[in-house]
Amino acid sequence: MSQSELERTYFQDGLHGNHCYGCGAWNDKGLQIKSFWDGDESVCIYQPKPHHSAMPPDVMNGGTIAAIIDCHGVCSAIADAYRTEGREVGDGEKIWYATASLTVNYRKPTRIDGPVTARARLTEKTDKKTMFEVDFFSHDGVLTCDASVLSLRVPSEWADPTGLFKHIDSNS
Ligand SMILES: CCCCC/C=C\C/C=C\C/C=C\C/C=C\CCCC(=O)SCCNC(=O)CCNC(=O)[C@H](O)C(C)(C)COP(=O)(O)OP(=O)(O)OC[C@H]1O[C@@H](n2cnc3c(N)ncnc32)[C@H](O)[C@@H]1OP(=O)(O)O
Q1: How many CA atoms are closer than 13 Å to the CA of 102, on its beta-carbon side?
Q2: What percent of the chain has pLDDT over 90?
Q3: Where is the signal peptide (predicted)?
Q4: Residue nearest to atom 62 of ligand 1 (CA)
C-alpha cells in the first residue's frame, strides 16, 4: 500500500552522519535525495535545480541523473537489508553498502522543469550483493533512463563519519 507524503519514512534520515554527495542528509551542499517504500518498489522524487542542467538549460545533466540513481539504488539495498531483519533503517547495528557497479541507459532527454522520479525494484540478492533495477521518469511521465545498481555490503567501519582510509591503511 502506498504511503501518503506525511506518513513517509525516508531511508536517508536513518543513515546518521552520512556525508554522501547524493544521499547524505548531513551534506548541506549535496543533493539530499529522499527515498521511501511504495509496496515492493522504492521511490525517489527529486526536484532538479536550474544548475543541474546539461548544455541546453531545459535538459537535466546525465551525471546528476546517475548520482540520483546510484544513491537511490544503494540506499534501497540498505533499506532492504534492514527490512529483511525486521528493523527500521538506522536502528541497532549499522548496515552499510557501497556501489560496486552502476549502469545507466539514457533513452531520452530528461526535462528539468519539474520533479523527476526514480522507481527501483529488487532483482537479485545474496548475503553480500544486492541488485536493483531502476526506471527514471521526467515529470511528464516519460521513461527517460533505465539503470541497474549493484551494491555490496561493506564493514560497518566504512560508515565512520570521520573517514574510511585510516581503517583501510591500518589493515594493510
Ligand atoms: C569508498 C567509499 C565508499 C562509500 C560508501 C561507504 C559506506 C557506506 C556509507 C554510507 C552508506 C549510506 C549511503 C550510501 C552511500 C553512498 C551511496 C553512493 C554510493 C557511492 O558513491 S559508494 C562510492 C563508490 N564506490 C566505491 O568506491 C566502491 C569501491 N570498491 C570497493 O571498495 C570494492 O570493490 C567493493 C566493496 C565494492 C567490493 O569489494 P569486496 O572485496 O567486498 O568484493 P568481493 O571481491 O569479495 O566480491 C564479492 C562479490 O561481488 C562481486 N563484485 C564485486 N565487485 C563487482 C563489480 N564491480 N561488478 C560486478 N560484481 C562485482 C564479485 O564478483 C563477488 O561475487 P560472487 O560472490 O558471486 O563471487
Answers
A1: 16
A2: 85
A3: none
A4: 129
- pLDDT-based confidence at 156, cuts 50/70/90? confident
Select from 78, 87, 104, 63 the least CA-distant residue to 159. Answer: 78
Query: Which pLDDT belongs to residue 1?
Result: 44
Q: What's the DSSP call for residue 127?
A: S
In sequence order, the 6+-apart residues with CB closer than 8 A to the CB of 64 are 31, 48, 52
Residue numbers of the domain that contains 72: 5-171
CATH code assigned at 142: 3.10.129.10
For residue 102 and ligand 1, the question of a CB distance below 6 A is answered with no
- Enter the pTM of the model: 0.92
CA distances, 132 to each of 6, 68, 70, 73, 160 (Å): 26, 13, 10, 6, 25
For the record, the C-alpha cell of 28 comes out as 548541506
What is the tally of structural domains in the chain? 1
